[in-house]
Design goal:
- The complex is a heterodimer of chains A (about 350) and B (about 260).
- Chain A has 13 helices and 15 strands.
- Chain A has two domains: about 5-200 and about 225-235, 3-Layer(aba) Sandwich (Rossmann fold); about 240-350, Rossmann fold, CATH 3.40.50.
- In chain A, helix 1 (about 10-20) runs parallel beside helix 7 (about 145-160) and helix 10 (about 255-270) crosses helix 13.
- With about 350 residues, chain A is α/β, with parallel strands linked by helices.
- In chain A, helix 7 (about 145-160) links the parallel strand 6 (about 140) and strand 7 (about 165-170).
- Chain B is an alpha/beta fold and about 260 residues long.
- Chain B contains eleven helices and seven strands.
- Chain B is globular, with a radius of gyration of 19 Å.
- Chain B starts with a helix and ends in a 5-residue tail after the last strand.
- The chains are: A alpha/beta (about 350), B alpha/beta (about 260).
- Chains A and B meet through helix 3, helix 5 and strand 9 of A and strand 1, strand 2, helix 4 and helix 6 of B.
- Strand 9 of chain A pairs parallel with strand 2 (about 80-85) of chain B.
């Protein structure tokens, strides 16, 4: 067992980054995640020699990530919604050049400069590509400080395994709240000799180059096929979700991250009133747990999807159930957090009183 | 006349024999044929850079960053490990490389649009942090790859496809002397402006590149070698005319020589 500590989400994430043997962090301050850079600046370099650099912008930070990842190093950046928007160009290049890296988005209310309170309005941006071109990030959605830590380790593993950018999509509440957390032990910083990494041309061998430019359309299509094949493998093997009471469920509540955590409370309140409610909480938003929704859909009366946005993940839920059950939505936006009571009220409105 | 031909013809034939060649392709330049237009300065600077890398014996220790612009394919020609950066982000990418591999020699190769327009923030802040990089800055005063639009370094009154009546500084801004601007920063160690329009200037450019790389071997700070270059295709000139344009128009505004050199103590 590792150390058990009482930590803030952003600090736990930073601690996990150090312990995962991360080689470099490049970032830019933005609320509600500035603790990450502060914590790393204080702790990381003196403990593991990790590079920590405050960039002049998120644009620059993500391109520093590109450079360092291209040298085969374990690298990470973090930001919040407006800053993540600035990183989209870089993420598209990183996905295309197939470089491994980890990015955390501590989602705040938007659009625009928005607000600094927690929100989930960046689902589409995170899951559907975000930048230009056909690509995906692996998207992990933590609902607790513990998962912030767990997903740093998992995120690096998936990034390395698939040579792909991985995103942790959290929100301002998970970043800011304090909880008990079990930390994994310090891992060694490993030097991996990747054949593709630009670490200086080896004597007697050809030089390596990292690029996302393939001017011949035949070649560019081939690269696209390679990426899509990779995403297909992820969809088959990397889906993660939490399921509750599926055995007796007549209804489902669903959501991700903080909204899902509040849903669990709403579900419990509902079950106490005699409603047979189950729960699916996707932990990977890409790849999305399509199969479990499809499996459950024919035998339930309806799903209430709860998000802190105007209804984004609900599109994937509806695609998954293929019309076999009713899917309704309840959401709060702009930094407002739904309460368990109002979730249950909406559940009753759609499925008990209205049906 | 026929007598002269008798003397000249064997010379012409022989001059191409390998044993009579003065210059060779440096072994760090790949076999790939350049896509650059005839007479373009990029080819010369590529060759010079790889000559210096070969002569210094740092092929295995050098990592380069290619920009977006005409030299976007530099990684096909420069036979060292290379990364291709997003438009303007070369100095950020190079920072990422150098910070995780401080023992390596890292250079960027950028044009005026890449370095002094879209990438100004990345360039200025990398310089201000004193990143140990060599930035090779090709200034031909025009956008080449997108075919002749106004660059930040286009001269006042210069006709381009986006300044068809000549660059009007009151509405389109002034030509940017970014090398002079960067030279003021304390993190910057060496700034020089050279050209490749004459044989003499080519030799000086080579020396400047060598100096920049030598400084980086010792990690002394940010080094910038600006090369005032030509763009025959987009200036709609012959290579010779474009070199005259460099000499008569560009160099008077962008004077050659060292802008910042280390103080001798």
């Amino acid at each position: 067992m590792g150390d058990v500590k009482f930590m803030k989400g952003n600090e736990a994430l930073s601690e996990a980054m150090i312990r995962a043997g991360c080689d470099a962090y490049f970032g830019y301050p933005i609320t509600p995640q500035s603790e990450v850079l502060e914590y790393l600046a204080r702790e990381a370099t003196k403990r593991t020699g990790m590079v920590v650099l405050q960039a002049e912008s998120e644009v620059s930070a993500i391109n520093m990530i590109y450079g360092a990842a291209g040298c085969g190093k374990r690298v990470m950046t973090t930001s919040s919604s407006p800053g993540i928007s600035l990183m989209q160009e870089g993420l598209s290049y990183i996905a295309s050049a197939e470089l491994p890296c980890l990015v955390a988005n501590i989602n705040r209310g938007g659009p625009g400069l928005g607000t600094i309170q927690p929100a989930q309005g960046d689902y589409f941006q995170s899951v559907k590509g975000g930048g230009h071109g056909d690509y995906h990030l692996v998207v992990l959605a933590p609902c607790s400080v513990q998962e912030m830590v767990d997903y740093v380790k998992l995120g690096f593993e998936l990034a390395d395994k698939y040579r792909t950018p991985v995103m942790i999509l959290a929100d301002g509440a998970i970043g800011q709240m304090m909880e008990k957390v079990e930390l994994f032990p310090q891992m060694e910083r490993v030097v991996t000799d990747y054949p593709w990494a630009t670490t200086g041309r080896p004597a007697g061998k050809d030089r390596r180059y990292i690029t996302s430019l393939h001017i011949q359309p035949e070649k560019m299509e081939e690269i696209n096929h390679t990426l899509q094949a990779k995403y297909k493998v992820m969809q088959e093997t990397e889906v993660r979700y939490q399921a509750l009471h599926l055995d007796d469920a007549e209804y489902l509540m669903t959501g991700f991250g903080l909204a899902a955590r509040i849903c669990i409370k709403a579900m419990e309140l509902g079950r106490a009133k005699g409603y047979k409610i189950g729960m699916i909480r996707p932990q990977t938003l890409f790849p999305f747990p399509t199969k479990i929704y499809a499996e459950v859909a024919p035998r339930i009366k309806g799903i209430l999807d709860v998000e802190m946005n105007a209804g984004q993940m609900i599109e994937d839920v509806r695609l998954s159930v293929e019309g076999k059950t009713r899917v309704e939505f309840f959401g709060r936006m702009g930094g407002m957090i739904p309460s368990p009571d109002e979730i249950l009220e909406n559940f009753e409105k759609y499925f008990i009183k209205g049906s | 006349m026929s007598e002269l031909n008798e003397i000249m013809n064997p010379i012409k034939e022989n001059i191409c024999l390998p044993e009579f060649l003065v210059y060779e392709r440096p072994d760090t330049l790949t076999e790939q044929e350049f896509h650059y237009c005839p007479g373009c300065g990029h080819s010369t600077v590529h060759k010079l850079l790889m000559e210096v890398v070969s002569e210094m014996g740092i092929v295995g220790d050098t990592i380069g960053v290619a920009p977006v612009g005409c030299s976007v394919f530099a990684y096909h020609y420069l036979g060292v490990d290379m990364q291709q950066a997003a438009h303007g982000r070369a100095c950020a990418v190079a920072t990422g490389i150098k910070r995780v591999m401080p023992e390596k020699i890292v250079f960027t190769y950028q044009g005026d649009g890449d370095l002094a327009a879209i990438g100004t923030a990345e360039t200025v802040h990398a310089a201000n942090r004193g990143e140990n990089l060599l930035v090779i800055f090709i200034n031909n005063g025009i956008y080449g790859m997108t075919s002749g639009q106004m660059a930040p370094t286009s001269l006042e009154g210069m006709v381009t496809t986006t300044s068809p009546y000549g660059r009007d500084v009151l509405t389109q801004g002034y030509p940017l002397k970014i090398s002079e601007l960067l030279a003021h920063l304390p993190g910057v160690y060496y700034v020089t402006r050279q050209a490749v329009n004459t044989a003499g200037n080519v030799r000086k450019t080579k020396k400047a590149l060598q100096r920049g790389l030598e400084y980086q071997k010792k990690n002394l700070g940010f080094c910038l070698v600006e090369v005032v270059s030509n763009c025959p295709s987009n200036l709609k000139m012959t290579p010779l005319e474009s070199n005259e344009f460099v000499a008569n128009q560009m160099i008077p505004f962008y004077p050659l020589g060292d802008i910042k050199v280390p103080e001798v103590k």
